[in-house]
Write a structure and sequence with these properties.
single chain; about 500 residues; 5-stranded antiparallel β-sheet; about 25% strand
C-alpha cells in the first residue's frame, strides 16, 4: 500500500522508534487518526470542561469516546428512537450487507449487470413471483436478485460467508435470486449474512417483475471486475490418499487460482473433474478393496471427500482423464500405514470450527508476512480504554502492534491485535471497538483474535469493507484459524 490516510500523517511525523508504554503512544494513534490533524490547536480539555457544565458529564464521556448520539435538530437524544425507522434501517443494512459482503463474492463480478433488492416480503408474495408453493419459502425475508448472464464453468467461489447458497451451480444462468434472513445472534455464524437460494434461472428466462414483493431498490453502483481475473479468495488445499497394490501413500497440494486457471496442473484437472461430475459437496467413503484415490479438502467452492477409481474415471472426457492420471503419477507422496480421517463437516463448512486457539506469536507471523513489522508487547501495555471494552469474563492472553515503528506504519499502516482465552469471542467486543474507532478503522474479529487496522480506506474496497491489505491480512488470519493455529 502506498497511500497513507491524511488523518495519520501527524502520527507518522512524530512516531517514536521504541515500543509503546501503557498509555504513551496509544492516545496518539487513537485520537489523531480519528479526529484528524487540526489546522488550529484546540484546547480539548477546556472545551470538555465547559461542555460538562452545560450538558453534563455523561454526554462528555460519550463525546470523548466518539460515541455521541444526536437526535433531531441536533439535540442530545436520550429519548426512545423511532422504532419503525430503526427496524427499517436494520432490514436495509441486512439485505445490503448480504448482497455486497456475501453474494457478490460468490459470483464472477465482471459478469454482473444488475442488482435489485427488497427489504422485506412474505412467502406468499415470493411464491406468486418465483412460482411453487408458499411453504417452500421463508415466512418473512428480504430478497436479492442479481442479473447476469452468468457463465460458471468451475466451482471458483469462496463459500465461508454464505455456505448455504454457495457455490454457484455450474452452467449458464440468466439471473439468481436469494432470500435474506436475520443473522444468527450466537454461534459461528453470528453477524454474518444468512442467505438461502430462491431461484436459479436458466439462460433465456426473463427477469420477473419484483414489485409485487414490495418496494424494489435497484443498485446503481456495480462492482465490475477484470474479465480475465478472479479474486485470490478462490484457492484451497487438498489431501490425496492413494491406495495401490504397492501400498498406501499420502500427498498434499495447495491450489491457487490466478487470472484464468489454477497454478497447479493437478488442481486444475481436479477442479474440471468435479465440475464435470456436478458434485460441489461429495462425501464418499473409500472402497473396501482394490485401488482408489481419495481427494479430501477444498478447491474454490468445491469441498468434500471425492473418490476416484479407474472405472469412475473412465466416464470422464479422454483428455481430462489423461491429465488427472498424469498429475497423480507425478504427485509427491509419502508412505503411510493407515487411512487418515476424511474432511469433517462437508455439508456445513460454517460449522467446521476448530477448537485450536491461535497464539499471539502465530498472529504476528501472519502479520509480518504482510510487511507490518508487528511485535508482541506485554498484556499490561494494552491501553486502558482497550481493556475496558473486553468483558470481565474474557482474559486477554496476548497483544502485538507495530506502534512506534514509523517506517512500518508508513508502508502498511497501523496494526494492533489481541488474543483471548475464549473463542469465538463475544460479539460485544467487536461492536464496542467499532463504535470507539469509527469508519476510519478496520476491526477484524476471527475466533479468538481481534485485529485493529488503520489506515482504512473504504473507497478502495467498498464491497469488501476493507482495503486490499486489510483483505489479504484478514484472509490469512482466517486461514491461520482454519489450519488449527499453524501459520500458513
Amino acid at each position: 500500500m502506498t497511500e497513507i490516510d491524511t488523518h495519520i500523517a501527524d502520527l507518522l511525523e512524530r512516531a517514536r522508534l521504541t515500543a509503546p508504554d501503557a498509555e504513551g503512544d496509544w492516545p496518539d494513534v487513537l485520537e489523531r487518526s480519528r479526529r484528524g490533524r487540526r489546522a488550529v490547536r484546540v484546547p480539548v480539555r477546556g472545551v470538555l470542561l465547559a461542555a460538562a457544565l452545560l450538558i453534563g458529564v455523561g454526554a462528555v464521556a460519550q463525546a470523548e469516546t466518539g460515541v455521541f448520539s444526536l437526535g433531531s435538530h441536533g439535540r442530545s437524544s436520550h429519548h426512545r428512537p423511532n422504532q419503525r425507522l430503526t427496524i427499517h434501517m436494520q432490514r436495509t443494512l441486512r439485505v445490503t450487507e448480504a448482497a455486497y459482503s456475501g453474494i457478490i463474492g460468490t459470483l464472477p463480478r465482471h459478469q454482473l449487470t444488475g442488482i435489485a433488492t427488497v427489504n422485506l416480503t412474505t412467502a406468499a408474495k415470493m411464491a406468486s413471483v418465483f412460482g411453487g408453493a408458499a411453504d417452500r419459502y421463508p415466512d418473512r425475508a428480504g430478497v436479492v436478485l442479481v442479473k447476469g448472464p452468468f457463465s460458471i464453468s468451475l466451482y471458483l467461489q469462496g463459500c465461508k460467508r454464505i455456505p448455504t447458497a454457495c457455490p454457484a451451480p455450474i452452467g449458464d444462468w440468466a439471473w439468481l435470486a436469494y432470500a435474506v434472513l436475520p443473522s444468527p445472534r450466537t454461534g459461528p455464524r453470528a453477524g454474518l449474512p444468512n442467505v438461502r437460494w430462491v431461484h436459479v434461472a436458466p439462460l433465456g428466462q426473463p427477469i420477473p417483475d419484483l414489485h409485487p414483493l414490495g418496494r424494489v431498490t435497484v443498485q446503481t453502483s456495480l462492482p465490475h471486475g477484470d474479465p480475465h481475473s478472479v479474486d485470490r479468495q478462490h484457492q484451497g488445499a487438498v489431501a490425496i490418499v492413494l491406495q495401490r497394490p504397492t501400498g498406501l501413500t499420502l500427498g498434499r497440494v495447495r491450489c491457487v487460482y490466478e487470472r484464468t486457471h489454477y497454478t497447479d496442473q493437478l488442481c486444475q484437472a481436479l477442479a474440471e473433474y468435479v465440475a464435470f461430475l456436478h458434485k460441489p459437496r461429495p462425501d464418499e467413503p473409500h472402497p473396501s478393496q482394490g485401488s482408489w484415490t481419495r481427494v479430501s479438502g477444498v478447491i474454490g467452492g468445491w469441498r468434500g471427500n471425492l473418490m476416484i477409481t479407474r472405472a469412475r474415471l473412465a466416464a470422464a472426457p479422454p483428455a481430462l482423464r489423461a491429465r488427472i492420471e498424469a498429475g497423480l503419477a507425478t504427485l509427491s507422496t509419502k508412505p503411510i500405514t493407515r487411512i487418515p480421517p476424511p474432511l469433517r463437516c462437508v455439508r456445513r463448512p460454517d460449522l467446521c470450527v476448530s477448537s485450536k486457539m491461535a497464539t499471539i506469536d502465530e498472529v504476528v507471523a501472519v502479520e509480518n508476512r504482510h510487511s507490518l513489522s508487528a511485535h508482541t508487547i506485554p498484556v499490561s501495555a494494552v491501553p486502558s480504554r482497550y481493556r475496558a471494552f473486553v468483558p470481565a469474563a474474557v482474559s486477554i492472553t496476548g497483544a502485538a502492534t507495530n506502534a512506534g515503528d514509523s517506517a512500518a506504519i508508513a508502508r502498511r499502516g497501523y496494526v494492533f491485535s489481541m488474543t483471548f482465552d475464549v473463542g469465538p469471542q463475544p460479539a460485544s467486543i467487536y461492536v464496542r471497538f467499532r463504535r470507539l474507532l469509527g469508519a476510519g478503522w478496520g476491526v477484524f474479529p476471527d475466533w479468538n483474535v481481534l485485529t485493529l487496522y488503520h489506515p482504512f480506506t473504504p473507497e478502495r474496497g467498498l464491497h469488501y469493507r476493507h482495503n486490499l491489505t486489510g483483505f489479504s491480512l484478514l484472509r490469512d488470519l482466517d486461514r491461520l484459524i482454519a489450519n488449527r493455529g499453524q501459520a500458513p
